[in-house]
Structures are given as structure tokens and as C-alpha cells.
Amino acid sequence: MATPDRRRRARTAGLLGAVVGVAAAGVAGGIAVQKLLVRKEKAGPDPYRDEPFDALPYDTETTVTTDGGVDLHVEVVEAPGRRKRSAPTVVLVHGYALDMGTFHFQRRALTEAGYRVVAYDQPGHGRSARAADGGYSIQALGSALWRVIEQVAPDGPLVLVGHSMGAMTIMALAEQHPQLFGRRGRVRAVALISTSAGKLSEVPLGLPNVLPRARARLLPVLAGAAKLTPGVIDRARGAATDVAYLLTRRYGFGGASPSPAVVAYVERMNERTSIEVIAGYLETLFTHSRYAVLSVLADTDVLVVAGDKDLFTPLAHAEEIARLLPTAELLVVPDSGHMALLEYPDVVNQALLALVERAGRKR
User: Fold this and answer.
1) pTM
2) Average pLDDT over the chain, rounded to whole?
3) In this structure, what is the dihedral angle of CA atoms 121, 277, 54, 303, given to the nearest 10 degrees?
4) Alpha-carbon torsion 149, 152, 153, 155, what sign?
């Protein structure tokens, strides 16, 4: 006769199996219909077909080592002429399963405007090393950002720009080093793009509503599987290119016809991030809660950017940040998803350049 614990485990396994089955069936059904259109879509007109992604110039390439011993890849574009002394250094902090290429259009616009720009790959992402113990936390990311600032931008005014988990990293930095912010701090402005201050465990991601409730039980399973068979899973991801493209378009973009080249680029950034690293960040993302920390930014010029069709960090999360920071500017990008800064770069660039220009006028 089965024990109560065994019956409970059986019910849990059945629930998780049903959730995964329903989600997989929905995705597979959509893919079966849309997969035939992928090649045709990629062959259609695209203003960014020849865009030099991963090939923007820089003046300095260096390595910054975190307190945990992780080597971070950092690129610096120096400011020419008169801006070099007076204007702020802009530090770009990318998000989950991406890399510094997330800011491709913003980095170019800032460089053309004559600002000094620092971009780096977060631990486990891009060309940065992975954590030796496989453990990742937003708290550690805040500490890593501090090391980048110490080594690459040790003096002068700063503007911090974060996307998704990168904006959460800035919140963690504010938690650890509040003296950097406010009227007497070096950070004159902050841009928080497609992000959240907490309660990500309640976001359904467009999947069945039962999934958020079961997610706490799924996390250890996903993390364990990723550690046991990371190579197998990564090879499977690489083989399913059409599937990956469709999922990237579905969950990263809001518009009906995003640039195929941009979607493919985001897909490549995702693919370059190991499944072991992806799984390693899940718990810290779903337990992230830094609403109280936002008060540190109360006297800092803050720009909050959100896509109205973002499935990962819904618009309501940006609105909550803006509610807690009444002086912040909230920019809602219509018909945009989580990758608003790549999907509608001109809209985001205009607001970002205005923010950095205001920061340059402050004393």
C-alpha cells in the first residue's frame, strides 16, 4: 500500500507532467503551423539584414575579476574631445541569457553622440567566465557591477543602463552601495528597461496559469537536469534552430513583424548561454524582491522603459516601479515585447540620449 508521501509525490509528478505536456503541446502545435513560414520570413525585406551585430568597435578591451573569481569581459569606447572631461560614463548592464550585444543600437547611438561607454558580459554570459561553483545570484551581480565601476570608471559622473536582469543588478548595486546614488552620488541617472522589482514567480509567461504555482517544485528539477546533462541539452538547443527562432520571436518581441535579423541575433545570444547557466539563475530571478531598495533612487533621474506586450516582465511591473518612484519617467513602447531596445531602438534611443544629456548638465 502506498504511503502518504509516495501518493503526494505521485500527484506532484502527475501535475508537473500535465503542465509540461499542455505547454509542450501548445508550443508544438504553433510550431507545426508556423515552421514552414520561418524561411520565407527570413528571406523577406529586412532593414537590419546587413547589420554588423557583434562587430561594434571599441577602444579598450579588458578583464575585470569579481569577488567570486569570475573573469568578466569588458569593452570601453572612449569619449572624444570636449565630452571626455564633462560628460558621464554610460555603463550598460545586459540581462538574462543575453550579452552586451543587447545594447547594440544604444551603444552605437551613445558613441556617435560622443559619450564614453562601458559594456560588459555578466558572469556566465557572452565572453565572461562561469562561476566555478555554478551558483549565481543577483546580489553577486551587483557586486560584479561595483568591480567594473571601480576598475573601468573609478571617477566622474555615471549613468547606469540596465535591461531586464541588468536593471535588477543596478537595484542590487543600490542596495549594497547607496552612497553612489542621490544628489551627492556619482550616479546621476539610471535607465531601467524591461524589468521588475519583484514577484516574477507570479508571471505566467503566457503559459497555463497553473505553472507559476508549480514553479517552485520545478526549479530544483530543471537545475538538477541542467547540471547532469548540460552538453546534451545544449546540443539539442543548437539543432532546433527553427524552433528556437519561433520561441524567441514569441517571447522576446511584441510586434507582428519584427526584424528577422534582430530575432535571429537574440536567438544566437540565447544559444551562446549554456543551459547550466540559464538554470543557475532561475532561483535568484524568481526570488528577486527589491521594492524597498527603489527608495535609494528617489533623488536620481530615473527612466523606466517597458513594452506593452512584454511576457517576461509585464507592463504592470514597470508601472509599479514608476509608482514607487513618482519622479521617474515611464516610457511605454507600444506593440513591443521584452526586447524593446532592439525591437524599437529609435524610440528607446531618443529617451536614453535625453536622459544622458540631462545627466551631463547636472553638477
Assistant:
1) 0.85
2) 86
3) -50
4) positive
